[in-house]
Design a protein that fits this description.
The complex is a heterodimer.
Chain A: H1 3-25, H2 36-62, H3 65-70, H4 75-108, H5 116-123, H6 125-150, H7 153-186, H8 197-226, H9 251-254, H10 264-275, H11 277-297, H12 307-314, H13 322-338, H14 341-345, H15 351-383, H16 401-427, H17 431-452, H18 455-461, H19 464-486, H20 491-517, E1 543-546, E2 551-555, E3 561-565, E4 578-579, E5 593-594, E6 597-599, H21 604-624, E7 644-647, E8 653-656, E9 671-673, E10 680-685, E11 689-694, E12 699-703, H22 711-716, E13 720-722, E14 728-734, E15 737-742, E16 746-750, E17 768-772
Antiparallel strand pairs in A: 1-2, 2-3, 3-6, 4-5, 7-8, 8-9, 10-11, 11-12, 12-13, 14-15, 15-16, 16-17
Helix pairs in contact in A: 1-2, 1-4, 1-17, 2-4, 2-6, 2-7, 2-12, 2-17, 4-6, 6-7, 6-8, 7-8, 7-11, 10-15, 11-15, 13-15, 13-16, 13-17, 15-16, 16-17, 16-19, 19-20
Chain B: E1 8-17, E2 20-30, E3 35-40, H1 46-53, E4 61-66, H2 75-80, E5 82-85, H3 97-105, H4 113-123, H5 136-148, E6 154-158, H6 166-183, E7 189-193, E8 206-211, E9 214-220, H7 221-227, E10 228-234, E11 248-252, E12 255-261, H8 264-272, E13 278-283, H9 286-300
Parallel strand pairs in B: 3-7, 3-8, 5-6, 6-7
Antiparallel strand pairs in B: 1-2, 1-4, 8-9, 10-12, 10-13, 11-12
Classes of the chains: A alpha+beta, B alpha/beta.
């Protein structure tokens, strides 16, 4: 490969690769692609701006610009190679980006062709691609001319963003006036461009303006490059704090010999302030743009038919999040570029002190400018009736938890981006490098964040993973930034440390949350304790009945009845409490007595329970025409309204939808056999579980996921052994939890699938011993 | 303050970049009140050693002490007592000369305004000028002012005169360094790494020459001048001499030049035996010693 071309490829590769990955991945982030076009246009604009700035900016930052000009190569040739490569990379990224968008839209609405959202996006795809191309052209052009004119990466970045944004916003504001005038001339018509001649003319004018800006910028850059000299026009001189040194104030006359001038904190803070001067200047300009965007919003019809511009104006406040990233990226990288970092470290101030005095002002500035300021503007906008669609009721919701939660997240995002920027800055030798690294880092965080909060990952790791990820990120980025800053000269070690730390952090996040979610410590807990001597057997088993409320009743083989109640407040620590239900009506609640009790077989109450319950069950079976199933099956059927498990009269296990209350009467009842075994004795159906008792005294559990929505899929699920014992004599459910009775009379309860607080842990695997039913007899 | 503690003490310092040993088992001691020369060819490991002294790089092995303290553990204490002028001088581009000096003064407990004003005048630096507009030499001058005004106990200079014009260079070496050290000759120490050895000839008390990260020669300047001699002789006719033990022998026609390493008397008597028309013995300059150190290295090998 031509060496000049090879050098250009190497120069452009980091930023181009970062933008390419973002262009592919961005459409797939987020739950729905409704705001896709606006987001992708913003990503394309800033990505291509970064690339365009890198093309000459990295040469200027590295100090190779002058030596490049000094080579015996025609400048036109250098320009052709640079711009040709840049255009090629931009075209590739643009094509890949919109191909990714197309696939995303197609994928999201593949099953719902009539969806209006899909139609809207599909109809506007060509228009969005056109707008994207226009923004891409403006980004490339702006990045080139500003870099060559200003020779200052950060100023170039800001100016290249501000100028086209300002032109568009101002142009739209002028349009608002012109539309009314032209509409009056050509007559009343629709708001949609293409139907309204006045609007069409104006919008065509706007596109022409954008194209003209793009082309003029490239021509201007070309002229700047051909006439470029080895002298910066503005260089790095962007500073507000300039002390005039007059003769009177000259150091020579200022003081006497040996003056104490110890004020390091003030000096360092002042220096940081001066470092960020360029950002202060452009934040002011950004503020004006935001105000103009709010004014544009006040005319709701102005941007109808222009989905991208509409979304950009509506969500203009989001762009403020760029500020913390940019100021973070400057903070160390710019000092390295100036070559002053070594000198700084030779000052008698601790490195940690210097680091803190860098990070804290940057964080504070990032949070205030990146989140507090735009929110304050949006609150003001809301009060004049120009709310963003993201803040429709912001004025009324200021004290609501919803708003506070949003505010915390938004401030967190601004702080996070500032931290990622600072981290990127400690790894880079100049601002552009830092920006590429920080964007890659932030992008990786977003991708990982999207993945780990996705439904598949969530089921593996629980809520612990996203929480742990936020904590890990909040620790790892500042820690790495500090270590990188402290040992900045040792680049090989620094990069190795960063790679290993991130790998370790990911491993820790996944392993830690997996272990926590799946209760790894239970491996070290003792197995289920041994049961006592058998007092019951499967030859003559007791009958168990629980209900959806809180009643558990057991009819012993000798006719006695044991009964007790579980109260909702003991959900996580159920214990035997009051006797407030009787078994004459499994759906009702009945009189209370204190604690679990066994009623004698000859008592009226016990006879009444047994007889009434059996009668009710048998009547019900006959009524529903379910004679092929054993009455014992129905003990747990009431726990699920969509599907239930049954034991056939031959001992087979079935699953059916006869009780599906969501189906209409015309819905056909369906029953499917589960497995081929015919030695099942009892079954209980919970919300997402089915637990059955086998003739050998073992318990088996079916766990159904959200994917097993049909009976056919449920019937194919492989069961797992529940517990370790073979002396179970009955199983039922109370309050959606499985309760089994062991031969020694002990009652055991397994938690249900969502018995794990805020989704941090799965339910415990081991059952909880509730007590022994024969203890109540004493 | 313990005046017996060496200002700089380096023992078996090793610092690697990947597989390359930039400094390999270097040891040296700099005593208080001395001007110490640290010489070596490009890439010999001088700047790496200085960066290890300042905790800008961490050694792979060996110990480094400045004022008897570990610069890694007592970074601020050490740096409060020294100043450093790097080979590549840089300043914040938005600051003026005056602001830069104010900025540097902010970190010092002591700052000599008189010296500052005097040096600004000598170097003809405009305090209101932006540092970005300074030439390389002017930036070096500004860095030197910033390093001398605090009156540090140790002044570490890495190629301080590169970029300075001959007039300023002489001014700097004779006046600035000389004045700095003479201000408190018992306490103030200069550690200077340079290629322009001849410029520092009169100031250097002791020196170390390093090559490929290893110490080649450490001596006091006076002892070195006594040890290394140059003997020049002219004979009436072309004479072939078999001079064993000479560091280098250069013979062209009737002219003979011999470099002696501690054995000048022996060589001199051998030359005299051939009755030269003219005989001259002179001490080698430090620069010449540096140049012949390459020969020393080969002879040691």
């Amino acid at each position: 490969m031509n060496l000049l071309l090879k050098k250009e490829v190497r120069l452009l590769l980091p930023s181009a690769a970062t933008v390419l990955v973002l262009a592919i991945v961005t459409p797939w982030l987020g739950r729905s692609p409704y705001s896709l076009f606006a987001i992708i246009t913003a990503v394309l604009f800033f990505g291509l701006l970064l690339m365009a700035t890198s093309s000459f900016g990295r040469e200027i930052s590295a100090g190779t610009f002058s030596s490049m000009l000094a080579q015996p190569v025609e400048r036109r040739r250098i320009w052709r190679v640079k711009i040709g490569l840049l255009a090629l990379a931009a075209a590739l990224i643009f094509a890949v980006c919109f191909a990714s968008c197309f696939l995303r839209i197609h994928d999201y609405w593949a099953d719902v062709p009539g969806n209006t959202g899909a139609l809207y996006l599909k109809n506007n795809f060509a228009k969005a691609a056109g707008t994207g191309a226009l923004f891409a052209l403006m980004a490339l052009s702006g990045g080139l001319w500003t870099t060559l004119l200003l020779r200052h990466a950060i100023a170039s970045f800001w100016v290249a963003f501000m100028v086209p944004a300002g032109v568009i916003v101002l142009e739209l504001l002028v349009d608002a006036q012109l539309v009314s005038v032209l509409s009056a001339i050509v007559g009343e018509s629709s708001n949609m461009p293409g139907q309204d001649p006045a609007r069409t003319v104006i919008y065509c004018g706007m596109i022409a303006l954008g194209v003209a800006y793009g082309i003029a910028g490239i021509v201007f850059s070309w002229r700047l490059f051909l006439r470029a000299e080895d002298a910066a026009r503005f260089g790095d001189l962007f500073s507000l704090s300039r002390e005039r040194v007059s003769d009177d104030a000259a150091p020579a006359k200022k003081s006497s010999r040996g003056v104490r001038a110890w004020k390091p904190v003030r000096a360092l803070l002042k220096k940081e302030f001066q470092l960020h001067t360029v950002s202060f200047l452009f934040v002011g300009a950004f503020l004006i743009l935001h105000v103009l965007a709010i004014l544009l919003r006040s005319d709701e019809t102005l941007l109808n038919g222009f989905p991208v511009l509409q979304s950009l104006v509506q969500f203009f406040w989001v762009f403020w999040l760029i500020v913390p990233l940019i100021i973070g990226c400057m903070v160390v990288a710019e000092e390295r570029k100036f070559g002053v970092l070594e000198n700084q470290f030779c000052l008698p101030v601790t490195r940690f002190g210097q680091f803190i005095l860098k990070v804290l002002p940057t964080l504070a500035f990032g949070i205030i400018v990146g989140s507090v300021l735009p929110l304050a503007l949006e609150i003001a906008a809301s009060s004049i009736g120009a709310s963003s669609s993201g803040f429709s009721n912001i004025k009324n919701e200021l004290t609501s938890w919803h708003f506070i939660e949003f505010f915390i997240k938004y401030v967190g995002a601004a702080a996070g981006l500032a931290l990622v920027g600072i981290w990127g800055s400690t790894l880079a030798k100049n601002f552009l490098q830092a920006t590429s690294i920080a964007i890659a880092g932030a992008g990786a965080c977003v991708v990982i964040g999207t993945l780990i909060t996705g439904k598949y990952m969530f089921r593996l790791f629980g809520l612990g993973l996203p929480i742990l990820a936020v904590i890990v990120a909040a620790v790892v980025f500042p820690w790495l930034a500090w270590r990188n800053y402290k040992f900045f000269a040792e680049s090989e070690r620094v990069w190795r440390r960063n790679v290993l730390t991130f790998a370790g952090a990911l491993l820790f996040m996944f392993a830690g949350s997996t272990a926590f979610y799946h209760r790894a410590w239970e491996v070290f807990l003792r197995a289920e304790p041994a049961h006592g001597a058998a007092k019951l057997s499967l030859e003559n088993p007791p009958k168990l009945r629980g209900n959806i409320g809180s009643v558990l009743q057991i009819v012993l083989p000798d006719g006695r009845v044991w009964a007790d109640t579980f109260e909702e407040k003991y959900r996580h620590n159920p214990r035997v409490r009051g006797f407030d239900a009787l078994w004459q009506n499994p759906f009702g609640s009945l009189p209370v007595s204190q604690g679990p009790q066994i009623f004698p077989a000859d008592s009226d109450l016990a006879a009444s329970f047994t007889k009434k319950t059996e009668d009710i069950t048998l009547d019900w079976i006959r009524e529903k025409n379910l004679e092929r199933f054993a009455p014992a099956s129905f003990a747990g059927s009431i726990y699920n309204i969509q599907w239930q498990g049954y034991i056939g009269n031959d001992g087979s296990l079935w699953i059916g939808n006869r009780f599906d209350l969501l189906k209409t009467d015309s819905a056909e009842a369906k029953y499917l056999q589960v497995g081929t075994e015919t030695d099942w004795l009892g079954v209980v159906t919970l919300l997402q579980q089915m637990i059955a008792l086998k003739a050998d005294g073992s318990l088996w559990q079916w766990n159904f996921s959200y994917k097993d929505e049909t009976l056919e899929k449920k019937a194919r699920v492989t069961p797992a052994r529940l517990g370790i014992h073979n002396d179970w004599v009955g199983v039922t459910g109370v309050q959606f939890r499985a309760v089994a009775l062991a031969a020694d009379g002990s009652l055991w309860m397994w938690p249900q699938s969502y018995d794990h607080g805020p989704l941090m842990k799965k339910p415990r695997k081991q059952p909880k011993r509730l007590g022994n039913i024969f203890d109540a007899a004493r | 303050m313990d005046t017996n503690v060496p200002v700089i003490g380096i023992q078996n310092l090793t610092r690697r970049y990947g597989r390359h040993d930039a400094v390999d088992g270097l040891s040296l001691t700099v005593r208080r009140g001395k001007c110490y020369g640290f010489f070596g060819r490009n890439g010999a490991g001088k700047t790496t050693t200085i960066k290890c002294l300042l905790n800008l790089l961490r050694p792979n092995s060996g110990t480094v002490r400045v004022f008897g303290l570990d610069p890694q553990k007592h970074e601020t204490t050490v740096k409060a007592r020294l100043t450093y002028v790097p080979d590549q001088v840089a300043f914040y581009p938005w600051m003026t000369v005056g602001e830069t000096l104010e900025y540097l003064a902010s970190f010092r407990a002591h700052w000599n305004r008189d010296t500052e004003a005097d040096l600004l005048r000598r170097f003809q630096l405009d305090p209101s000028k932006k540092t970005q507009g300074l030439s390389k030499g002017q930036r070096t001058q500004l860095a030197l002012i910033g390093a001398i005004c605090p009156g540090p106990e140790l002044l570490v200079l890495d190629e301080p005169t590169s970029g300075l014009d001959p007039i300023v260079r002489r001014e700097f070496i004779e006046t600035v360094i000389g004045a700095y050290q003479s201000g408190d000759p018992e306490q103030r120490t200069v550690f200077v790494s340079t290629h322009l050895i001849s410029e520092f000839e009169g100031l250097i008390d002791e020196f170390t020459i390093i090559d490929q990260g290893r110490e080649l020669l450490t001596m006091e300047s006076d002892a070195a001048r006594n040890r290394f001699k140059k003997i020049r002789a002219r004979f009436s006719q072309e004479t072939k001499l078999g001079l064993n033990g000479a560091l280098r022998v250069k013979q062209g026609g009737r002219e003979l030049e011999v470099l002696a390493d501690g054995n000048s008397d022996k060589l001199l008597s051998e030359i005299k035996a051939h009755q030269p028309e003219e005989l001259k013995v002179e001490a080698l300059s430090l620069e010449e010693i540096f140049v012949v150190s390459d020969v020393l290295k080969k002879s040691n090998a």
